[in-house]
Design a protein that fits this description.
Strand content of chain B: 15-25%
Radius of gyration of chain A: 15 Å
Distance between the termini of chain B: 29 Å
Largest sheet of chain B: 2 strands, parallel
Helix content of chain A: under 10%
Number of domains of chain A: 1
Number of helices of chain B: 6
Distance between the termini of chain A: 31 Å
CATH class of the domain at 2-92 in chain B: Alpha Beta
Oligomer: heterodimer
Strand content of chain A: 25-35%
Order of helices and strands of chain B: HHEHEHEEEEHH
Largest interface: A-B, 50 and 70 residues
Number of strands of chain A: 4
CATH superfamily of the domain at 2-92 in chain B: Glutaredoxin
Amino acid sequence: MSEKRSGCARPTGAIVGETAVQDEQQEKPAEEKKMLIARVGNKAPDFEAPAYYRGEFTSVKLSDFLGKWVLICFYPGDFTFV
Amino acid sequence: MSAVAANYDKLQELGVEVISVSVDSQFVHKMWNDQELSKMAGKDIPFHMASDGPGNVGKVYGVYDEEAGVELRGRFIIDPDGVIQAMEVLTPPVGRQMSETIRQIQAFQHVRATKGAEACPAGWTPGKKTLKPGPALVGNVWKEWDPLKDH
């Protein structure tokens, strides 16, 4: 796994399996952007984020796993108690 | 997260890729794996531990707590087409039940394998009775499925 430059985690602005129209979105003020919200029965909002994976600092992108089942678990923080 | 790691073999058997997400950096993820999680799970964390410092990902998934600056316990099951099939969100003090997550994945996989011809009633686990939705079943579920015996 190649080491990637680490930036901030960001939604790609697209749903899984589609290409984001980045340029158009960036021209609009933030509040005019169509906000994708996760809901059951809908395609998941795609994102790419810096990650730690099996000893390497990498980047993980949800849409790379199209064709597989994916479990995403959000949690409050490392070194917390539950 | 150690519970997810401990159940990872089962998840792999089901062909499930796991991504964990918190606001901690990937560097802290490494330290947490090395110092604590690997000891709890009996092995290194085998899945992607993503870092969502600004909460950007959590916001579009509706699980970022702006006031506390952390993610809530949000769990999403996504199918091979990228469709969210299940979500569960808990406030921080209570943990998830992995066996329930696995049961839901198995049920959604079963429904998908039958192309939606079968549905999994409450409490369904592999091998238990499914229902075949259609006109003939309307008003007749009580004949097909007993909530005490089949649950």
